From TrEMBL:
CDD domains in the record: FliM
InterPro entries noted in UniProt: CheC-like_sf, Flag_FliM, FliN-like_C, SpoA-like_sf
NCBIfam families the UniProt entry points to: fliM_switch
GO CC entries: bacterial-type flagellum basal body; plasma membrane
Ranges for domain Flagellar motor switch protein FliN-like C-terminal: 254-322
Alphabetic keyword roster: Bacterial flagellum, Cell inner membrane, Cell membrane, Cell projection, Chemotaxis, Cilium, Flagellar rotation, Flagellum, Membrane
Gene designation: fliM
GO terms, biological process: bacterial-type flagellum-dependent swarming motility; positive chemotaxis
Topology class, membrane: Peripheral membrane protein
Source taxon at top rank: Bacteria
Protein name, as recorded: Flagellar motor switch protein FliM
UniProt function note: FliM is one of three proteins (FliG, FliN, FliM) that forms the rotor-mounted switch complex (C ring), located at the base of the basal body. This complex interacts with the CheY and CheZ chemotaxis proteins, in addition to contacting components of the motor that determine the direction of flagellar rotation.
Natural source organism: Sphaerotilus sulfidivorans
Gene Ontology molecular functions: cytoskeletal motor activity
Amino acid sequence: MSQQNLSQDEVDALLQGMTGDVPVAETEGVRPPKGSVREYNLASEDRIVRGRMPMLEVINERFSRNVMPALTEFAQRNLEISVGEVKVQKYSAFLRETMVPTNFNVVSMRPLRGSALFVCDPTLIFAFIDALFGGVGKFPARIEGREFSGTEQRVIMRMVEILLREYNKAWQGIYPLELTYQRSEMQPQFVNIAAAGDVVVSTVFTIEIGESVGSVRVCIPYANVEPIRDVLRSNNQGEAPGADKRWISLLSDQIQSAEVELVAELAKAPATVEQLLAMKVGDFIELDLGKTIKAHVDGVPVLEAGYGTSGGHYAIRIERVLTNQQVSWIGDQNA
């Protein structure tokens, strides 16, 4: 059975149906009645104030600077790369801007949840294939709505390996993100990394190789990077977020002032349910007492101490602080 690919018009119509959008002509002149109630979804991502993401712009600049020599070596041809702006848009809008059929590469984003897309358009792919097989790039390839051949897929995989390797490097020192290739598709309906109405962050990298111009488009769902949005909005490029000494000091102060319950257990005695049921007032329970006992916090032993009285009260005297052998442990600092 032959496989049919969707045309650009068919893809636009499909995406329009997914998002529930209708042509402007159908709604022209329609106004809600005065005083009517308009629905507002508090969970909608449209209400999120996003602003600029300076660190993501830095990552994109690093990526373009580092990937250019790597792709030049791969293609054995000089090329130029320019970086587009960081766009925050709906996923359906991103797909409408994408030429189809094309090469969609789904990648995981550990330790973040979800997947991202690296989209290589056919013009770029055929330009690299032309360069690898000795072409001079004067005759643009004819874009056909067909599956990529085995040879073309091997070239694509090599390109994607280079792109992911350099993109991971661009994140070093900012956040320990690791992108891993999962699969490739040619049609947008098979790459549902987000719902059509979800917000995504996208960047276009335009690559000129010979007389051909193609692009690599990176698309990341906003929900994936929302846990690190403070990192991406930061202007500090000098140190990783984990090296915030002021935050570490504040956290340490808060921990040291936290109240804990210290439990000193004098002794234990084994007993069966039958023995417990038979006990009555006046019975004796034999206990084996050692010279020292252990004090626990939330079930974790922290002190070894002697026991007795002091000032007319029962008391324990610390004999040894039990630590996990780490110099930075809070017990060592305050023993």
